[in-house]
Amino acid sequence: MSWKQYSSAMERYAIKTDDMATEDAYFMATHMPFAQLEVYRGGKTTATPKVMSEAEVFDNLVYNPDNEHRLIIVRGDNGTGKSHLIRYLKAKLEHSPATVYNPANEQLIFLRRLNNSVRGVFSQLLEQKVIKDNDVAEKLKKFVESSDAKSESAFKIEILHSYAAAVENDESEEVYKRAFHLNIASFLSDSRVKEHMMREGGAISRCYTVITAPSDQVLKDNTIFSADDFNVRKLLKEVHRQGDPRAQDCADTLLGDDDEVAKLVNYLNKFTRDVVQRCADISSESTKSVFVELRKDLKRQGKNLTLFIEDFTGFTGIDSELITVLSTEHGGDYADLCRVTAIIGITNDYYDQFRDNFTDRVTHQISVTYNSFSTEEFLVQMSARYLNAIYCDPDTLRDWNKNGAVLEDLPISKFAPPCKWETTTIEGKEVTLYPFNKNAIMSLYEHLPVKSPRRFLKDVIRAQLKEFFDGKEYGDDWHFPLNQANIQMSNDPHSSTIDRLESFSVAERNRLKSVLAIWGDGSATYAKADDGVETIGGLSKEFLNDIALSEFAGIGSGAKVPEKKPEQKPVDKEPDNKPKPVDGATKDYLKYKEDITAWFVKNESLKYDADYRNWLRTLFRGDAKQCGAVNWQDIGVPAYIADERLADLAAYYIDDQSQPANAEKAIVFMDRSAESRDALFALNELRYAKGWDFEGAAYYQQRLITWLERRKDEVIEKVIASKIDNQLPVLEWCIALQYLKACILGHKIDMSSPVTILESLMKDIKRNDKINRETREWNDLIQFTQNKEADFFNAFNMLKRSAATTMGAIHFSAEGTIKSCYRTNELISAVEHLMESEWDIEKALPEAIPAKHLLYNPATLLKSLYTSVKKAMAAEITQVDEVLKKVEGYVGDINKDNLISTLSAIQDLFSVFAQNGILGANDLRTKYEKAPVEVATEILEHTEKLISAKNASAVMQLKIYSDNSLNKVSDFLRDLQVIAQKAETEGTKATNAIANISGVSNMAELSDAAKESMKELHGLLKNAEVYDDATN
Amino acid sequence: MLLTETIKNSTTAIKTRRATLENKQNAELYTKALLQLAQQHDAIKSILDCAAEMKAKGIVEKSVLPKSVRDDLLTSVGDCGSAIAEGNLTLDAVKVLQTKGETYASQLKLVWKDAATKYAEGTKGYLSMISGLTQDPRKARELGDNITRTVEGALSIGAINKLVADVKEAKDITDSFSLNPAIEAFLKKVSAQQATVADLNDDVMKWLKEKQLLSKLRLRFTL
Hints:
Order of helices and strands of chain B: HHHHHHH
Strand order of the largest sheet of chain A: 2-1-7-3-6-5-4
CATH architecture of the domain at 57-142 and 283-369 in chain A: 3-Layer(aba) Sandwich
Structural class of chain A: alpha/beta
Largest interface: A-B, 52 and 53 residues
Oligomer: heterodimer
Number of domains of chain B: 2
CATH class of the domain at 57-142 and 283-369 in chain A: Alpha Beta
Shape of chain A: elongated
Largest sheet of chain A: 7 strands, mixed
Number of helices of chain B: 7
Distance between the termini of chain A: 192 Å
Largest sheet of chain B: none
CATH topology of the domain at 57-142 and 283-369 in chain A: Rossmann fold
Strand content of chain B: under 5%
Number of strands of chain A: 14
Structural class of chain B: mainly alpha
C-alpha cells in the first residue's frame, strides 16, 4: 500500500471525524476493550461501584436471559468512550449467537447520536418503524418534513412565540405574579428583543438547533436561555424608551439587576420542554404513547425490547416522557408491556442536572472514568490497533468482520518500518507502533489539554499520522511531528545548539527538537553501537532519515550507544504510574522552563515574566547577597543612578510578556531569541541550583554572558540616558539647583572657594520663615521651591548619592544611612564650571527633556526655575526703583548727610513725643536710638547693593538680592512712612488742640473786686482798736 | 515733603500746644485764689466786727484785738493786695491770710467764752436760785439755758446781741424778786440741799407764808 492509501484508510475508515460513523469492520478492529468500568446499582452515585470489564458488563447487564427490567445509564465526560462502549455492546449483542440474541424474540433498537436533535430522534424512530400509532407517526412525520420545509427564521419566530405564549398562559405565581407574566410575554414579543434572541448564538437559535440541528452537532446541554440574552444594557434601554408599557416594565426590572436576569433565565428555561413539544405539535401524552404502544406491540409479538441510545441529549422535550415509559416495569398491572433492557448514554453533566428524573428509575449505572483508559498499556494497545487497521488492507479487514470479527483472527498488517522499531502484541501477534513509540504515545497523551480516548485518537494519532503520511507522500514540506503542547528537549544545551544550526530552517530545527523531545531521550547525543547502529538522542538515525532529518548528525563523538534505548523498552512491562514526588523548587523550575520554552517555540506569551524580570534585575543590579553582573561604578556610572534606574521592574521588558508594560520605557529589553531563551534558562538553572555549581553550569554561564555582553552597552546607555563617553552633567544640574534654592531661600553661601561653596550647598536647605521678600514674584519663587520640595529633595539626594561611592552591589546605594566617600574632584569640577558660567547654565540644558526621567528631572526643574528666576528678578528691579524713589521723597537724595539729617530729626521727634507724653511707635523709637551715622551707613550699603545689581544677569541679581537688601531698604521706607504719618498726625492734633484752648472769663472783674476788698480790710485793721500785747 | 520738614512742623505744633495749656492752667489758679481771697476777706471782717461789738456792748472792757495780730493781718492783707496788683496772687498767699484770720478767730472765741460767762454769771446764778419760786419757773429756766448756750456757742454779732438781751431779761426777773439777807441765806441752803428744820426760823416761816410757799416745802430724813 502507498502512503496515500494509508492516509485514505485512516480518513475514510479508521479514524473518521464522527467516530460513530466508522465502518463496523474498522470499529471492531480498533475497538479497545474497557477493562475498568465502574458499575453502580440504582441511580445514586454515592454507592461503592463494582469494577467490571466490558465483557462482564455485557454478560451481566446486556445479556438478559431472565428478562429482568433494566434501565442502564452509561455515563462519563465528553469523549471518554460512552458511545464507543454502547456501540460495542450493541455490536456484540448483534454478533452473539442465537442463545444470547435471537431477533425473533428480541427487538433491538439503536438510536444513534448521528441526528442529535429532536428531529433526528423522530426521524430514527420513524425509520426503524418503532412508532406503531399511526396518528402519532403521522404527526412526527409531518414535523420532520415541515422542519425541512420551513425556513429557519419562520421556525425561530414560532419558537419565540411559543415561549411568549407559554409564559402568558402560565397561571402559577411561584416565580412571578400573574401580571408580570404578561410583561415578560410583551418583552419577548418586542421587535428588538426578538431580533436579539434570534441572533446567531442567541437563545432562540439555540432552541432551533436543539429541535432541528444537523446531525454532526453535539449539544453540550439543552439550556436555552442564558444571562447573555438579557444582560444587554443597550437593548434594555431601547425597550425602556420605545417599547410598549408592559415590555418597558419588564426591561426596567432587568436593567442593571443581575439577580432579576438570572431569575428570568431560570423561569424561561422551564418552558423549553413545552416549547419543543408545541413546535413538534406533539403532546406529552402522545410522546409517551409512542413507546407504550411499541412495548405493547412487541409484547403482542412475543418480543422483548433492547434499546441502545447513544446520546440522550437529543431527546430534549421528550426525555422525561421517554424515561417514564422505559422505567415502567413489565408484569403486574403492566403485563401488556414487553420487557425493556435500555442502555442509555448520558454525560455526567446531564445526569447531574436531571438526576431527579433518573435516580429512582435507573437500575444500573456504568461509569466510564479516567481510570478506564489512561493506562500506558491501554494507550499503546489502542495506538497499535489503529495503526494496524490503517496499515491493513481494507478488504481483508472487512472479510474478518464478516467472519464474526474474532479478535484472535484479527489480520496484522505487513507494514515494515525502515529500521528496528518498537512493537506491541495483539492477541500474541506482534504489531508495529511506527512511526510512534511508547515515549511519544505517553508524552503526547500526557500533554493533551483534555485527556480522553477520543481526543487522543483525533489530536494525537490522526493528527500526527496525517502529517507523517503527507510528509512521506509529498516529501517537500514536512510538518511531522506536531508539537502543539510545546514539549521541549530536557537537554537545554543540546536544544540551544540545534537552535543555532543555521544550516537548518527554523521549521526543521523545531521538528528535530520535537522528535528528540517527544520520541527521544530529550538530548541530541550521537551514539554508535557495536553493531554499527547509529542513534541520536536515543532514536535510530534511520528514523530521522525517514522523516527527512537526515542532515542532523547529533552532538558528541558517539562512542557508545546508551544502555537503555527508548525503543528497546519492553512495551508490555507494567507501567510505573506512580508520580514521583516533586518538591516546590523543582515544580517552579519546571514551570518556568515550560513557560520559557512555550514563549520561544510557540510564540506564546510569558506567564511568569514578573519572575524573569526580577531575575534580570538581580543580574544587572545585584541584591543583598550578590553583586550584579555589571560593575557600574567602574565604568563611571554612579551606583545610585544605576540602582535607581534599574530598581523598578518596569525597567525590564521581555518581548510578549503577559503583564502589560511600555516596552519603549524599558531599559533592559529581552527579545524573543534563542540567546534570550538561553539566558532565561541560565537564570532559571542558577536560581534552582542556588549557584553555578551544577552540571552544565559552564554552558549556561557562557550563554548568559553572551546575552549580557551583546546588550551591555545598550543597557548602560539607557541607564545613563546618554552615550557612555558623553554623560549627562547631572551633578552640575543638581549643584546649580542647590545654589539657586539657597539664594531663593536666603541662605548664606560661602563663595570664598569651590570647596566652601560645596560645603555650603551640600546641606538640606530649608526655608527661613523670618525672611520676608518684597515682591510677589520672589515669594512665588519660594512657593515654587516648596511646591517642588520633593523634586528638590530628589535632586539633592541624587547629588549626594551620585557623588558617593558605594561598596558592594549598587543595591546598597539605596540605603541612605551608609556613610560614603564623595568623589570630590567631580564635584569641584562641576562647581568650577558653574562659577565660570556665573551659575547660569540654562542655555546648556538639553532642548528636549524627557518627562519624569530620573536623570533629566534636575534639568526639568532647573529649566523651569531659571524662567521663574528671571521673572522674579525683573519684578525685583522694578520694586527697587519704586522703593528708592519713595525713600528719596522722604530723605532727598540718598546720601549719608541726608540720611543722618533725617535720622536725627526722627530722634528729635521721638524726644518731643516723650516730653509731651505722646505714646506709641515705641519700637520705632528704640530702632532709631542708635547713632544716626551708624544707621545711615547701613542703609546706604543696602541701597548701593541694590543699585549695583540692576544691570547684572538674573542669576547674579538673585545672588545679590538674596541677602534681602531690598527688604532692609523697604523696611526703612516703611519706617519713614510710619514716622511721617505719626508726625503729621500728632502735629495736626496739636494744632487743633491749640485752637480749642479757651481763656478764663471775669478774671479782670474778680481781680478788681479783690483789690478793693483788700483795701477795705486794710483800712479796717488799720483803724481797729488794739491792745499792745507786746507790753503785756 | 521731606521728613525733616514734616517733623519740624509737628514738633513746633506740639510745643505750642504745651505752652498754651500751661497758660490756661495758671489763669485758672489765679482766679481760684481771687475767689478764696474774697471768702477770707469776709471771714476776717466778721471777726473784727465781733471784737468791736463785744467791747461796745460791754462784754469786755477793752479791745480784744492784739496789736501783733492786727499787724500780721495787715502784712498779709498787704501782700495779697500787692500780688493782685501784680497779677500773681497765689493760693499760697491767700492761705497765709486765711491761717492768720482763723488763728485770731480761735483766740477771740476763747475770749468771748470767758468774757460772756463773766458777763452773765451773776444774773444767771440768781435766776437759777429763784427760778422755782417765780411765777413762771419754766421760762426762768429756759432763759438760764439760753444764756448758757449762747456763751458756749459760736461768736457772732447775733450771739453778742442775744446774750446782752437775755441777761437783761434775767436781771429784770431777779430784780422783781427782792429778799432780805436771812431769806436769801435760807434759799441758798435750800438750793444747796443743806437746809434743815433748824433753819426754819420765824422770818423764814413768815416769808414762806407770804409767798404761799409752805405747801411747797417737803421734809425728809437724811441718814
